[in-house]
């Protein structure tokens, strides 16, 4: 079987992912994860190098202009690209293409199998979720939660940011999530339209790979603010761009890819 990861021939170094943290977006409400990944990659462009791309039959083929350079260099972007900071041991996957219908679970299993074999120590998934389908009485619009199957997860950073843990529920307890109830008493996170979230958690649990989900509840629309919020939280949690010498947090610069936002 062909490898999921395809290295770039022109990459300055052969990518080694052992003990790296893998950050990736979930194709979900508001494109929040994708907006955040572009923001982080552009603002840390001196740190991150494109080292390859992901090739999978589960993803619709796509090609476009360079997302980070509008000068007409002739470089292109493809559906799923892989960037790495060798120094920080952080790898970011940016996905711009959608999944083939019905292939999301297959891709989750493919991705986790590759991540496990490549030696990644943790996966961080950035997802948007539809606040209109929240089942509780609380207003969760623009509220962020984290998800983890582990009871030993370090919550220090989430506690500092006042981010609560999203508790799993029985899939068959809410009509909307009954299609996810593939087995009796199956537990899922009640985040509607969050893309890979539950499937990736399930695949990581099967492979005993640590995973954290960062989930921002929102609505479809002009989601720049949500993208900024997600980037700030992910950056703080993964320690990608450190604060300035004066202690000030990151001042984000919008990437060229955002110029096409409606």
Helices and strands in order:
Blueprint: E1 5-7, E2 21-25, H1 32-43, E3 49-54, E4 63-65, E5 76-78, E6 80-85, E7 90-95, H2 104-118, E8 122-130, E9 144-147, H3 156-160, E10 164-165, E11 169-170, E12 187-188, H4 197-207, E13 210-218, H5 224-238
Parallel strand pairs: 2-7, 2-8, 8-13, 9-10
Antiparallel strand pairs: 1-3, 3-6, 4-5, 6-7, 9-13, 11-12
Helix pairs in contact: 1-5, 2-4
What does this protein structure show overall?
The chain is an alpha/beta fold and 262 residues long. Helix content is 22%, strand content 23%. It has helices at residues 32-43, 104-118, 156-160, 197-207, 224-238; strands at 5-7, 21-25, 49-54, 63-65, 76-78, 80-85, 90-95, 122-130, 144-147, 164-165, 169-170, 187-188, 210-218. The chain has a nine-stranded mixed β-sheet with strand order 1-3-6-7-2-8-13-9-10, sandwiched between helices. A two-stranded antiparallel ribbon has the order 4-5. Strands 11-12 form a two-stranded antiparallel ribbon. The protein is globular, with a radius of gyration of 18 Å.
Record keyword descriptors for this entry.
about 260 residues; alpha/beta; 9-stranded mixed β-sheet; two-stranded antiparallel sheet; 5 helices; about 20% helix
> What's the helix count?
5
Our estimate of the beta-strand percent is: 15-25%
Summarize the main sheet.
Answer: 9 strands, mixed
Global Rg = 18 Å
Into which percent range does the helicity of residues fall? 10-25%
Strand order of the largest sheet: 1-3-6-7-2-8-13-9-10
Chain oligomer state? single chain
- Secondary-structure content class: alpha/beta
Number of strands: 13
Name the poorly predicted regions. Answer: none
N-to-C CA distance: 40 Å
The global form is: globular
- Mean pLDDT, rounded to whole units? 91
Order of helices and strands: EEHEEEEEHEEHEEEHEH
